[in-house]
């Protein structure tokens, strides 16, 4: 045990603790889960910051994500190139925001990004339709979905421009926190 090679330098671990809501122990546990997803890809030595990404197909199969209808969007939003393939940093960020320790504002900010399917910084009627369809797991008819979208837009579109800005969305979350789940 004594001269076992460390996965991270002391500084790296400090930095991860500063950037996430995790303790050193939780970071190590997540690292080993990340490593375990693709052992042939992810080295056990990160001290030289290897340029590694785990493919979305593996990330999306994790128990925390596999039943989430937004898993692909979540992975896209947290991956640095938007393709869902994740570096260790992306991976730790994602779990940090999903953790119970993350404040509601931060969760709302990422939920907004996840629901903004076309990445234009607004949730428009089309984004909302995708969101409601996924939230209800495709159990509603197209008519029911558009009724809900109309109602949400009606109630949440504070400046009446026909789409939700981050601010509109944050105000909506205050009234209906269910949207964060
Ligand atoms: Ca959008
Ligand atoms: Ca608006």
Automatic annotation (TrEMBL):
Subcellular location as annotated: Apical cell membrane; Cell projection, Filopodium tip; Cell projection, Growth cone; Cell projection, Lamellipodium
Q: List each copy of the EF-hand domain by range.
A: 144-179
Which domain of life does this protein belong to?
Eukaryota
- Tell me a GO biological process for this protein: cell adhesion
Offer a single GO CC term for the protein.
ruffle membrane
Which SUPFAM superfamilies does the UniProt entry name for this protein? Answer: EF-hand
Which keywords accompany this UniProt record? Answer: Angiogenesis, Apoptosis, Calcium, Cell adhesion, Cell cycle, Cell division, Differentiation, Lipoprotein, Magnesium, Metal-binding, Myristate, Repeat, Spermatogenesis
> Is Lipoprotein set as a keyword in this record?
yes
Q: What is its main location?
A: membrane
Family annotation (InterPro entries): CIBP, EF-hand-dom_pair, EF_Hand_1_Ca_BS, EF_hand_dom
Q: Report how it sits in the membrane.
A: Lipid-anchor
- Supply the name of the protein: Calcium and integrin-binding protein 1
What organism, scientifically named, is this protein from? Answer: Cervus elaphus hippelaphus (European red deer)
